[in-house]
Structure formats: structure tokens, C-alpha cells
Amino acid sequence: MTRDEIRELAAFQADESKGACALSFYLQPDPPQDRSHRREAIVAKDVVKQALKSAAAIGKNGSLHADLDRVLDLATNLRGNARGRAVFACSAQNFWKEFELPPLLGTTHIYLQSRFQLKPLAALLGAQPALCVAMVDRQRARFFDLRLDDLRERGGLVHFLPRTAASYGYHGYDAGHAERHVAEEALQHFKAVAERLRTDYEKGTWERLIVGCHDVNWPEFEPQLHPYVKQRLIGRFSADVASVSNDEIRDHANAMLNRWITERARTKVSEAIDLAKSNGRGVTGLRRVLQALETGEVQSILLGENYSARAVECPNCGHIDARIVTSCAACGKPTRELADVCDAIIPIAIRRDIELFYLKDNAELDRAGNITALLRFRSDQTTGQIAAAS
Ligand SMILES: [Zn+2]
Question: 385: CA distance to ligand 1 center in Å?
Fold first, then answer.
């Protein structure tokens, strides 16, 4: 799943005046130990049948029925793989997209709304960086991209030792000389790997890095990393490049990445709340977060895992208001009520590349109303500074 695909989903709006409806379906597979029971298919079919019933009850037109039939078909023909799935559909507007996802979606659920329901996706994507995993030893390097549980090998480097190095021992050189030569070759290799990481980073191939290598190689390799590559390093794990499997690489890297994301979110919550108190680059509470979103100040939004709040949105100008008012405070047109303000916030965040973090059991965030944001700047303070300077 690419960023462009997610943006496309976030930008989609069903034309309700024509009875169109945006269908979002998330399938959570059974845990591996229960896979023989096919419970997931039964649950999925129930969920779709319920949706069919309620769609009929509210008199939704035929196109939704067609979408639901197609999802039912998909649920019936699940061939028990352990991946999660998401479907986004609106046949009235000729839209159907299916994705395989990590099995971390919570529950199997179907949503029929005017926009696609992206919360399970946003919670999953969190602030997932474009991650590079570099597996390195003294002669080889293999580069992988890890995106949402999906590990792909992108390329590699092999350093061929010159013949003379390999045959040193047989030409009467002393062992120490041969060893120094091999060490020199390894150093050249590590330098080439570090250089490749730097150029790939500059090209935007990756944003964060995890390295897998033998413990003995790390003190040789690490000093070769460019300072700003080192700044992007999440961590290192111990592995034998020649024998490690792709599954092992993925599991090690995922565990490190998830720890890093959780820790980073926790740090950002504290930072946002502290900055909000000192009237700096942070805001807490829905009303202030919405204001900051409208002035384009927001860099990251941090939400309690189950955060939800009623709000209104203006279909005319897009203004979102935490107060339940019938006419828009910005343009005066009638508003429409949102059962959950996140349905409007998440697509905005995705479209504007604002980082979204969902946090479990964070007492500090709970006390701050379960919603807080870090800002790029404060527009009121920028104006103040200009006024002071002039
Ligand atoms: Zn308006």
C-alpha cells in the first residue's frame, strides 16, 4: 500500500445526493492457533449480512447492494491466509480497492459512510516511516524495504576480495600481513555500504534505518556511517547475513520499529503537553487542535486509542467545529453533524502528511482530553514577532 493510494482513499467523497455510499470493510483474521475453525469467514459473512439488512432498512439503492454482495463473495471465498484485509468500495462512483494488511486490525467491521473509514488504517500506519533494513557483513550488504509488515529486498553490494588477498597465505606472506589486508578490504566494503546508504537516503528511498550484522562487525561498520544517516538509525540487531531468513529479518525489524514508534509517541505527547502549557508549539483539546488544523500549523496529532467526539462540519467550506452549531461559523451555511470528529480529521491528516499517533493507556494524554498536537509554528506568535520587529 503506497502513500498515494492512501491519499486517494482520504480524498474520496461519496456523492450522497445521488445515494452513493462509501463502503469500508476490514477483515481481522483469526490468530494462528485458531486458523482451522474458519471463524473469520463466518464472522465476516455475518458482518456483511447485517450491513445488507441495515442498508435495505434505510432504503439504500442498488449500487451499495452490489458492493455488499461483492464483499460477501470475498468473505465466503477467503482461503485462510493469515493476512488482514481491507476493501474500499463505491460502485456508484466506480471505485473498488482491495488491500492485504498486517493482521492487526482489531475486529472485522464494515462501515457505510460518506467517506471511507480510515481509522483502522491510520492506527496501523501510525507514523510508520519508510524503513530500510540493511544486513551487513564484511563482504556483503543486502538492502530491504519494510513497509507495513511487507519486507522486500531492494538490492545489495558484494565486495569481491582480490585473488591475491585470498591466496596470501600461500605466497609466503606472514599471517599478520594477510589479516591486515583482509581488514583493509572489509573497511573499503563498509565505506561503500555507508556511501550507498547515504545516497539512497538523499534520493528519498528511505527515512529510517535498522542495521542487522554480527556484533563483531558493528564497531567496524558504525564509524563509517555518515552523521545524518546515523541520526536516522533506529537500532541494530545481531544477525548472520549468510544464514538469516527473511522472516527473521522482518520480525527483528518490526519489533524494533514498534518499540521505537511507541517510545516516540510517548515523547511527543509529553512534548506537546509541555509546549501547550508554556504557550509554545503545542495545543491540547479538540477545539484548539481543530483551530491549529485550519491555520495549517499542525505537524503531529496524538490521540487516545479510543478517542471519539461529536462535532459539526460545513459541507460548503470544510470548517469543522467542536461546538454543535447549525450554521457554519466561517461561512454561515448549514452544517452537518459528525458522530465522530476523527472521520473528518484523519483524511485531512493523511492528505497533508501530518503524523498521526494512536496511544494506548497514556495517563498524561488522558488528562489532556485524549487529543493533542505538536505544531510547526504558532501563527499568532509569528504575527507577534513581525509586529515586534517592525
Ligand atoms: Zn462553512
Answer: 30
Q: Encode pLDDT of 276-302 as tens digits.
A: 998 789 999 999 999 999 999 999 999
In 3D, which of 195, 200, 102 has the Cα closest to residue 145? 200
CA of 276 to the centre of ligand 1 (A): 28
Q: What contacts 24+ positions apart, CB below 8 Å, involve 6-9? A: 6/118, 6/121, 6/125, 6/350, 7/350, 7/351, 8/97, 9/88, 9/97, 9/116, 9/118, 9/121, 9/350
Q: For residue 19, how far is its CA from the centre of ligand 1 (angstroms)?
A: 23
- Predicted TM-score of the model (pTM): 0.77
Cell numbers linked to 30: 483469526
CA 323 to centroid of ligand 1, rounded, Å: 14
Go through the chain and tell me how many residues it has: 390
163: cell is 585473488
Q: Which of 129, 124, 80 is nearest to 105 (CA)?
A: 124
Task: Tell me the CA–centroid distance for residue 284 and ligand 1, in Å.
Answer: 24
Contact in structure between 284 and 296 (CB atoms under 8 Å): no
Name every residue whose Cβ is closer than 8 Å to that of residue 178 and which is 6 or more positions away in sequence.
Answer: 165, 168, 169
Residue 379 pLDDT > 90: no
pLDDT in tens, 12-27: 999 888 888 899 999 8
The sign of the CA dihedral 7, 9, 10, 11 is positive
The Cβ-side half-sphere exposure at 135, using a 13 Å CA radius, reads 24
Q: What is the dihedral of CA 203, 205, 211, 216, to 10 degrees?
A: -40
Element (H, E) at 22: strand 22-27
Residue 134: pLDDT over 60:
yes
